[in-house]
Amino acid sequence: MEDEFTMQHPRTRRRTWSAFLGLALAGSLLATVAGPTVAQSPVASMAAPSGTSPAASMAAPSGTIVVGITSDVDQMFPWKATQFQAVAVLGNIYGTLTELDQDLNVVPGIAESWEASEDGTTLTFHIRDGVTFQDGTPLTSADVKASLDAIMDEATAAVARSTLGSVTAVDAPDPSTVVLTLSGADAGILAGLSTVNMAILPAGATEAALSAQPNGTGPFAFASRTPNESISLVANPDYWGGAPKLAGVEFRIIPDETSIVAGIQAGNVNLAVLNDPLVAQNAESDGIAITRTPQLAYHVLQLNAAKAPLDDLNVRLAITCAIDRQQVLDTAALGEGEITGPITSPAYRSDPNARPCPTRDLDKAKSYLAAAGHADGLTVKTIVSQGEYATSVNEAQNIQAQLADAGITLDVETMDIDTYVKRWLDADFETAVALNGGRPDPDGMYGRYFTSTGNLNKVAGFSSPELDALFAQGKATIDPTARKAIYDQISTYLEDNAVWEWLFTSDNYTATTPNVSGFVPMANNSLQYLRQTELQ
Amino acid sequence: MTDQRVRRRGRRLARRLVEIGLTLVGVAVLVFVTLRVIPGDQITASLGTEAGDLTSAQLDALRAYYGIDEPLVNQFTGWLGSVLTGNLGVSQGSGQSVLDMTLSALPITLELAVIATAIGLVIGIPLALLSASRPNSLRDAAAQTVGLAGLAIPSFLLGSLLIAYVSKWFRYNPNSLGFARLQEDPSLNLQQMLFPALVLGFGLAAPIMRTARSSLLEVQSQDFVRTAHGKGVAPGRIRTRHVLRAALIPIVTMTGIQFGYLLGGAIVVEQIFSVPGLGRQVLLGLQQKEYAVVQSTVLVIALLFVLVNLVTDQLYRVVDPRVRAA
What we know:
The structure holds 2 protein chains of 2 kinds. By secondary structure, chain A is an alpha+beta fold. Chain A is built from 19 helices and 20 strands. The radius of gyration of chain A is 28 Å and the shape is globular. Chain B starts with a helix and ends with a helix. The interface between A and B is large, with 91 and 82 residues.
């Protein structure tokens, strides 16, 4: 029988077995191929003993720094870019009229100086000499005028158009002068002009052309891009601020933060900005240098005062008094961050503890509830996004537990980011656990939310004539001290009316290999100081 | 081959091709509709909550820019029409055509799938032979435990542990170097494929092992095996030559299905090990709501899947003469 079987199908047997053997062989071959290469490859030989810096010799032979980013850039056109990665890359390629220094003060950029008229309605910029685009064309006032005009044109769909809301005309009387005519004094506009969304582009260049081959005045020029893998920049020797010390920057896409940390550990990645406090703490305990930078972005429980029961001030105050912010920070974010009031920009920072209940006060919370007619408790709904940032769901759960102590049932609705964004934009929520971006200027940060004509006022759910008047006053006041006093009043007003529940700001974590020096992380997440960074 | 058999095969092939066509149309409709049903679009995906700061004229301009201002029917026919002419659309985020992106990602996914499947077979089949050689014994339990571990340990855990500890202890992490293609730098490429393929292969070994084990046990109890024993054939020879061979069909089926899944891209493993394969292409398309990227790539994956199934069916004819005779 056995013989019959084999004789009947000799070819079958041979083929089956050769197929199987082939697979097995391939497997073991792979194992042997991969095995020895691991041992003798240049990569492995770079596995230098700890203490020396393996990265310098390998990842950056020519002084090119490798920056790990978790996602590919979603937009190469600076006026439309909002994603962190896109802003980080484009911010190094393009230049702006004004810039921010490491403390977020406005400093000269392409404009080396400027002056405002007495009444603040004209703003004259003097363009720096010798600024050229990376293709060699000199930058003139015509490029500035063309850029600002295009940003203001709704058809361009520039995301920072509202920053120029008070601009009525842009003129270029001579090649090195640009004059903005404003409808009224606007103290926030100088800071507003510093974002990459206000980049000065060569006049006449199309969006399609610049997306394919960016052409700016920044310290680094676009070199190449492999989607989903990397974006490479090279130093711009003609940069007006002096040629960068690095030969170039490679933004390498490594989707997982833990994997980025592993890359830094192996010396293949030199620098990365991490968000997840857990990943950062683990990296630190493994001996990686981590720099903490408090962020302008703030964690907040947004209350929609346009909807019952939150239209009742007493209900909102009850929520304010029932939440221990430090507890939220400790539970949700491992204590990594700081309690905050509304304004997070360093120069205008709100007193973090100035609110109706500076510390948690359950009795007061219950009496507010009783005053609102909800002595038996009430239910409030909240929306939370999942997966957008590490701490969202934990924040919601902690707030839920704390509010329960005061007799408030928080009905938590967790959803994916797309659903969340849609409901947030439609103001389709009672409360929302949010991480909102901050800006260096308080008018840019909150004017759009809390003035009755602001683009995001529907989402803010609150406006009042007093706030409108205060914001108008803040915008028209140039003197920094007087201005700070106005925004202090705004902060107090927002907290006293329990407009939202501001919780905390978190840190970002800049991880670097030991051979990186000169980099300064910024509160707005900008990587602009790559231009002064060195690799040893 | 007789005329009749040729005709029969021809008819069978024609029917399969029609089925494949229908499947792909179904997939196209499904992915198109699903993408539009889930909330958000390219504008909100790109701008997030900042989209609220735009005027309605600006939003209209953006909708026109992204091509989502057209009626849905036009969007669908426009996309399917260009796919039929070989134009898979363009990714606005990267400025690259989806065809180029796919041509770049597909070989990587294919390579990873082949290596992972090989590893899965190399681990799975010997384990199954070991296990089935003495059912319910200690060695069976041990082999089954390994198989179960492959099923139970999620790839993200195994992957993260591997990458974290190997970098920490050996300062070795080829995956954080820029990705090298096989034709550019085979040595680095294989190093970069090693860990992801191991993780996938380990996960793959489990279903292969379990399928092979039960198939082996079933065949072992059949008459011809008893006869072979009776004739005094060596047990090892019986196991490999007679039993395994007769038990191959379910194993081939299982391997084919798993291989087909792998061609869809192993998203989690690709994310952890920064492998720029098809899975990440779809994920990025989904995150950034690049409709053309997701629709066209999913269609390509569906096509690959049905092709793999077709090939698996043909493999039956190779491994089992009884199928060929039918």
